[in-house]
Specification:
Strand order of the largest sheet: 1-2-4-5-6-7-8-9
Keywords: Membrane, Transmembrane, Transmembrane helix
Largest sheet: 8 strands, mixed, barrel
Protein name: EAL domain-containing protein
Number of strands: 10
Radius of gyration: 21 Å
Oligomer: single chain
Order of helices and strands: HHEEEHHEHHEHHEHEHHEHEEH
Bound molecules: ligand C2E, magnesium ion
Organism: Alteromonas ponticola
């Protein structure tokens, strides 16, 4: 086979689609190694009650500390891992690791913290999810009501009937459910009514625009009113400015998270950051006495 032929055929196959397939395959094998070598960790972003500033809980966000590439954010690997066999493994690692972290927090006196975990579509529809959750809750002696699972609209709308069934089984365990990034997908108000859920999270794109764009502000106001009228709680994400915080609070949004309130904290720094923020009165939560 001539060298030239090889080069030509490579060009033919080097379409962006095939490049993506190659990237997926490479990413999957790198991520498998990373999990074995303990390169994944969680960062915890504080969520507060907007009226009282009390710390109500954390959202767990995955981080990949690569030995040569440095810190890799989920946006750079989660989309590539989606629909690979490995994604589910990583998702289950997040639940198991998160449950252990929550039980450590409980052991240090934080009894009633919400701990939010993001689910991929694949994990949400995986039949072993409810049993795995239950196992981890028992193993770590966690109050199931402290676990909140975040789902995006895209995971729900493909099969509403099935989604409803799975959500019911999760809630039967005592866990909570949040609809993440609300407003960015096919947000239909009627499905919210049908779905067993506890929280709705307003996507940060609306929060980012709310001070300068009346339509974003109107959307936020409407989502808050509607969600409240349904007896659910609203959480705004991506609060970066005090004026956004104030307006959301005036609109009666229950909870919020964002860089203004706190950036995601690497799990290794969690306790120090908790103490620092409480000392500086950024949050109003009284700190328990640390045992050990
Ligand atoms: P998300 O669930 O909507 O998480 C919120 C994202 O917004 C996080 O990005 C967070 O760091 C970022 N963020 C928080 N506050 C602010 C702010 O004030 N301004 C700005 N500009 N950004 C803010 P991150 O950690 O990069 O995660 C991105 C997405 O990756 C998440 O979006 C979630 O969909 C996904 N993800 C993260 N961790 C996991 C995980 O363990 N499992 C799965 N399946 N997906 C995850
Ligand atoms: Mg989320
Ligand atoms: Mg979100
Ligand atoms: Mg988002």
């Amino acid at each position: 086979e001539a060298k030239g032929d090889h080069g030509a055929s490579f060009r033919v196959y080097d379409s962006s689609m095939n490049l993506r397939v190659m990237q997926k395959v490479e990413m999957e094998s790198e991520a498998r190694i990373a999990l074995r070598e303990d390169q994944f960790s969680l960062a915890l972003q504080p969520q507060v009650d907007l009226k009282t500033r009390k710390l109500v809980g954390f959202e767990a966000l995955i981080r990949w500390q690569h030995p040569t590439k440095g810190l890799i954010m989920p946006g750079q690997f989660i989309p590539l891992l989606e629909n690979t066999a490995f994604m589910l493994e990583l998702d289950y690692w997040v639940i198991a690791h998160g449950a252990r972290l929550l039980s450590e927090l409980n052991g240090n006196g934080f009894q009633d913290l919400k701990f939010a975990i993001n689910l991929s579509s694949a994990q949400f529809t995986d039949p072993s999810l409810p049993h795995f959750l239950q196992q981890q809750i028992q193993l770590n002696k966690i109050d199931p009501a402290c676990i909140c699972l975040e789902l995006t609209e895209t995971a729900l709308v493909s099969d509403l009937k099935r989604a409803t069934k799975i959500m019911k089984s999760i809630r039967d365990l005592g866990c909570k459910i949040a609809i993440d990034d609300f407003g960015t997908g096919y947000s239909s108000l009627s499905y919210l009514k049908a779905l067993p859920t506890d929280y709705v999270k307003i996507d940060r794109s609306f929060v980012a625009g709310m001070l300068d764009h009346k339509d974003d502000q109107n959307i936020i106001f409407s989502i808050i009113s509607m969600v409240r009228n349904m007896g659910l709680e609203v959480i705004a994400e991506g609060i970066e400015e005090a004026a956004q915080y104030e307006m959301l609070s005036q609109f009666n949004c229950h909870q919020g998270q964002g860089y203004l309130i706190g950036k995601p904290i690497p799990e290794a720094n969690l306790w120090n950051q908790l103490k620092e923020n409480v000392d500086n009165k950024i949050w109003t939560r009284p700190l328990p006495v640390l045992n050990g």
